[in-house]
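I had to read the description of the data format several times before I understood it. Each protein is reduced to its one-letter sequence and a matching series of backbone shape codes. The format is easy to grasp once an entry is in front of the reader. For illustration, here is how one protein appears when written out as sequence plus structure tokens:
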Amino acid sequence: AASGYPSSSSVKTAVDNSHTHSNKTVLDGITSTKVSNWDTAYTSSQANTNSINNMQTSITLYVDSVNGSDSNTGTSTSSKLKTISKAIEIAGKSRLRCVISLYAGTYTIPNKKMTKIGSSISIRATSDISDPTLVTVKGNIAAVNASVNISTLTLDCTDENYADINSAPVSSSSFGRFYLYKVIINTTHTYAINAQSDSNVVCDNCTFNSTGYGVYLYNASHGFIRNNCTSSSGQGVYSNTNSVAYISGCPDLSYANAYYGVVYVDGVRKLPNPEHSHDNKTVIDGITSTNVSN
């Protein structure tokens, strides 16, 4: 060997004679059986991870008032339910997010009103329906700290036999959330939608047929009203008590406010008046330097 370097034989002897690592005992105890068990455990862990990743998070229930039957499961188009009552019952027992898909027809909410608390549900027409008048749901829908999506149907609350005509057809409270797309709301109540107590409501291409405001926001709630929403009463959106309304693409929709309610129209703040954001504008404008001096 070159000067200063150990011979190859001495290196081999050192390697053969000892383990220099601190966990020699542990490593010496590793057997082929242990390695096999570790491989099996890893494979099982990966399978469990894949199972969780592929876990079902929602269920769709199909309802057909003409050709369905409540003795069916409702989970496929070949096993449709007949009533929305049965679909709501099944949804209430499921921990999954539920989508109720309605075929053309008329449906009645049980006991006049459905209230979702701390959960989420979607009620919509089947994907082949684009006309909201083909599907009618009778009754009120409320969300309390819950998320409710409604699309492409008519919500009718004009008959006291099927709806609470003394309440808004759509109401949310305590962080309730509504998303309505292409929904016609018919009611004899003052408001079509009543959102209060930190609630959010999104209305996209909706029609409000009520005796008063289409959307009433109260107590720090937010409303997003967009894309040609209309109100037959001539009264569109009312933002009250620290609420905020965002209106866009709805040229025929009127608006009003009270108690620090704010209204934006197409990105521009309209209420309160940017130049006079206080409620006592007339009094303030009447104050002169003479008044101040006196």
